[in-house]
């Protein structure tokens, strides 16, 4: 994973929309209780360097640039699977958590999903995961990165990015905020956000902005993996005089040279009573060993809180 590597791209050629990939049914499962909506399976996520043009849809519907693999395809499915199996596949748990997953620099939503295969199995009991792709393209100068590498913003004058850069700009950040809002409008609300590396930095920023009531949507918890404080000058005000009160889980590597653990610990210190876990390795999403129980315990707590909240809402409505 190439968070610390920089890439270049012409700002004038930025794509106008993002790609969002989801394995979540179209029925809302957040702590809010909007009416369910249904949709057939959308086309596969695009992988070209140009993102698809913006689509329009009413909140709760899945536009063409969203995909779902939790609801079976309607094409020829009845000829290949028994009715009992189809009914089982269509069944969803409306109480499951909904989590928006935000990839790192030089990744994209589809690749991030592929790299989270083992993580998905761990959290499947508690959550549906949705994957969103950053709006800005970057050049892979190493030749070994992901296809269609993306970034959430640039923090240098030459439109590159480094997590260790201090005092730079945040070119493209407004487009990123709009991308996240589009995801929230079309598939949200979400109970939580999960981010890795630059995506974890973005999750920390969004949590800080929510604490200051600067966002038009809300979420209830965050999972931050290899996260850090943004060094961009325009972001500093979000962290000032601000203790973030929502539940948070912070996972980082002892030997991470891309985002040293001290950077992750500094971000964790901005949260009230954060749950932290330090694994012995480097810059990736760990899924084996003791961290598995950490993920499960944290999400079990968030799941239980959601059940309690729903029960309180139902009692109030009686």
TrEMBL record:
Low complexity composition bias: residue spans: 1-18, 28-59, 67-81
GO molecular function: hydrolase activity
Record-linked SUPFAM superfamilies: alpha/beta-Hydrolases
Residue stretches making up the Serine hydrolase domain: 96-288
GO cellular component: cytoplasm; nucleus
Cited Gene3D superfamilies: alpha/beta hydrolase
Tagged with keyword NAD: no
Region: Disordered, residue numbers: 1-89
One Gene Ontology term from the biological process aspect of the record: response to retinoic acid
The entry's keywords: Hydrolase
UniProt similarity note: Belongs to the LovG family.
Protein name (record): Esterase OVCA2
Organism, as annotated: Spodoptera frugiperda (Fall armyworm)
